[in-house]
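User: tokens in, sequence out, please.
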């Protein structure tokens, strides 16, 4: 279990990292740790039940079934170079990765990170142009708790794991973070701008709430 203090948290909360089944206890910055641990103990039965039903992590190795842009694809590996060069190739039904076994996980992830960037960067720049702003940078990373973020300096960051969701979800998250270039909050004006940029955002937002945690189990 990991205990993490947070200046943003108003109350203690329990989070389960589906990727490695790690339990994280989030504690408000000024809260007493003993009180947070009492809260954790009171939720023990719920926690055990949640851990029991969580699916097992899925490693990036030959035969793994991985959803990419919302479609399940089988990871196929080969020690030989792929036709046309490059270590990563996506087809309608497969992910083909070339290299020795010890390199497969990294090359798979690198390929998915690059793929996420080809969708999220243009989407973010397009939405930003529509609102008359330009982000100082658009970065793809591996945050543990957010699908995206917007810094006060205009840096947009997105989780590469979004590429495991249907493509409309990526576009919603891009619109969401671009809206923060104008509104650094989640007030009515912010949500009105998100809707103007991406009218169907409620559908994609609901998808992330329902399925988002399952994306963390891959890799």
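Assistant: Sequence out:
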């Amino acid at each position: 279990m990991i205990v993490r203090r947070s200046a943003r948290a108003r109350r203690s909360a329990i989070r389960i990292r589906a990727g490695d089944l790690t339990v994280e206890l989030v504690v408000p910055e000024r809260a007493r740790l003993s009180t947070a641990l009492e809260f954790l103990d009171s939720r023990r039965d719920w926690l055990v039940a949640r851990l029991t039903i969580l699916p097992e992590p899925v490693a990036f190795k030959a035969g793994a079934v991985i959803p990419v842009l919302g479609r399940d694809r089988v990871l196929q590996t080969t020690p030989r170079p792929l036709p046309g060069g490059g270590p990563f190739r996506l087809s309608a039904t497969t992910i083909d990765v070339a290299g020795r076994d010890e390199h497969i996980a990294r090359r798979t992830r690198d390929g998915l990170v690059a793929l996420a960037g080809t969708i999220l960067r243009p989407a973010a720049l397009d939405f930003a142009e529509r609102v008359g702003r330009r982000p100082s940078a658009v970065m793809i990373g591996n945050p543990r708790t957010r699908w995206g973020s917007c810094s006060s300096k205009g840096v947009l960051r997105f989780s590469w794991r979004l590429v495991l969701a249907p493509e409309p979800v990526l576009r919603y998250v891009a619109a969401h973070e671009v809206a923060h270039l104008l509104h650094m909050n989640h007030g009515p004006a912010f949500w009105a701008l998100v809707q103007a940029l991406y009218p169907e955002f409620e559908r994609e937002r609901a998808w992330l709430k329902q399925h988002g945690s399952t994306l963390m189990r891959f890799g």
